[in-house]
From TrEMBL:
GO terms for cellular component: membrane. It comes from the Bacteria. This is Peptidoglycan/LPS O-acetylase OafA/YrhL, contains acyltransferase and SGNH-hydrolase domains. InterPro entries: Acyl_transf_3_dom (IPR002656), Acyltransferase_3 (IPR050879). The chain crosses the membrane at residues 20-36, 48-71, 92-115, 140-159, 171-187, 199-221, 254-274, 286-310, 316-338. Residues 373-424 are annotated as: Disordered. GO terms for molecular function: acyltransferase activity, transferring groups other than amino-acyl groups; hydrolase activity. Residues 17-334 form the Acyltransferase domain. Residues 390-401 have a biased composition (Low complexity). The keyword Membrane applies.
């Protein structure tokens, strides 16, 4: 008989609707960075046959991440959930940072591009790139990684304490939305002190409302938030998103609103089991499954490939196709060679190995404790007798004696006494 706990832990079937949204989000980011961002970073790489300037893909991924945090954190223990999330995210990210850093260092002198330093590498590996202007991003698309890690940590902290339940829910949601806006327009301006900028940018406060959107959609699907409340919150979140960019990119905000409508439909409605999508279900699921790997390798490495292709005389259309193909190929390799094996080892084999190592260390410690104790070195009586060693040790004071020194024999004591009388 299935209990309530096992029912909650049972995973629901994979819905193609989520893969459609994930693929649309990730590959819109890829196209946008190739056609729009690369000529901004490196003018020689443009123009392309068309330009996708709408920026909504990364925001969409953060909303999806927040929604599935709520879905999955209820399964089992929170600590195990957090470990699984980090084990899925960080190994592939760290490998991508090192690879991108190495490639950038190799080509930067020839291309005349910025040469990343060891400090940049360390800052990116430790996810503190946004905390200081002295640090440079190895790949600017990595800005979502610190945000996601922070969201995992906050969720693991708040969920066991009931912050996503009861009357606290509206307070939490609107705090995530309104507090960053107040900070943005009162304190975090272009002429603000650097520590204010560092805290605001380092914590990505201009993006935390996206996690509120994901939580709100999940609450709506769980019948804990009304449809009117959800609609009001989504509209407010879109206005806040546009306000954080000072209303200079409203088309991207509108595009993001359209995607949010799709997320709501995927979360609360039936699966999109339509004839056209059904025939493409396999490649869509495959592309969705490697989406994180694609995201990690597409931008800076794509810029490098585009520069090589440009120098080789490849046209704009060819560069676009080959850069997308490279992102898919390297993303598939990153997923199959790093992301999935590392996650599997860290969540299955790794804990077993760690427990064995800890057990071995504990057994070794107990065995050391059971060893026979070395007897203390005998000392002469305090009535003026000859000490066991009257001459000073040739070792410096800072060098301790070893436990293997044996007490002096009676014959040695006699020799010491004779030597002492001769000195007198």
């Amino acid at each position: 008989m299935q209990t309530t706990e096992t029912a909650n832990q049972k995973r629901s079937p994979r819905k193609i609707s989520w893969d459609v949204i994930r693929v649309l989000a990730v590959y819109s980011v890829v196209i946008q960075h190739i056609t729009h961002q690369s000529p901004i970073n490196h003018a020689e790489l443009g123009p392309y046959p068309f330009v996708l300037s709408l920026q909504f893909g990364a925001s969409t991924l953060l909303v999806i991440s927040a929604f599935f945090i709520c879905v999955t954190i209820r399964r089992g223990r929170t600590g195990r959930w957090l470990w699984s999330r980090l084990a899925r995210l960080l190994p592939a990210y760290l490998v991508a940072v090192v690879v991108t850093y190495g490639v950038s260092r190799a080509v930067a002198p020839a291309f005349g591009w910025y040469l990343p330093t060891h400090t940049d590498l360390l800052a990116n590996l430790t996810l503190v790139q946004a905390w200081s202007p002295r640090f440079h991003w190895i790949d600017a698309s990595y800005w979502t990684l610190p945000v996601q890690v922070m969201a995992f940590l906050v969720a693991a902290l708040l969920w066991p304490r009931g912050w996503v339940r009861g009357a606290r829910i509206p307070v939490l949601l609107w705090t995530l939305l309104l507090t960053p806006l107040v900070i943005r327009f009162l304190w975090r301006q272009d002429d603000a002190q650097q520590w204010v900028k560092s805290v605001f940018d380092g914590l990505a406060l201009h993006r935390v409302a996206l996690f509120g959107v994901g939580v709100a959609i999940w609450l709506w699907t769980s019948k804990r938030l009304s449809g009117k409340h959800l609609a009001a919150y989504l509209v407010a979140a879109l206005v806040a998103q546009d306000a954080h960019s000072y209303f200079v990119d409203t088309p991207s905000t509108i595009a993001f609103g359209v995607i949010l409508a799709g997320i709501v439909a995927a979360a609360g409605g039936p699966d999109w089991n339509l004839p056209g999508l059904r025939s493409l279900a396999r490649p869509i699921r495959w592309l969705g499954g490697i989406s994180f790997g694609v995201y990690l390798v597409h931008q800076e490495l794509g810029f490098v490939l585009a520069r090589f292709l440009l120098d080789a005389g490849v046209g704009a259309s060819g560069r676009l196709v080959l850069c997308v193909a490279m992102a898919v190929l390297l993303g598939w390799a990153m997923t199959g060679l790093v992301e999935r094996p590392a996650h599997r080892w860290l969540t299955e084999s790794g804990p077993v190995v760690l427990r064995r190592v800890l057990a071995t260390l504990a057994a070794t410690r107990e065995a050391i404790r059971e060893l026979p104790q070395v007897p203390a070195q005998p000392q002469a009586a305090s009535s003026g007798g000859v000490p066991t060693k009257s001459v000073p040790s040739p070792r410096p004071v800072s060098q301790p004696r070893t436990a293997v020194d044996d007490p002096l024999s009676s014959r040695e004591l006699e020799g010491v006494a004779i030597a002492s009388s001769q000195v007198r």
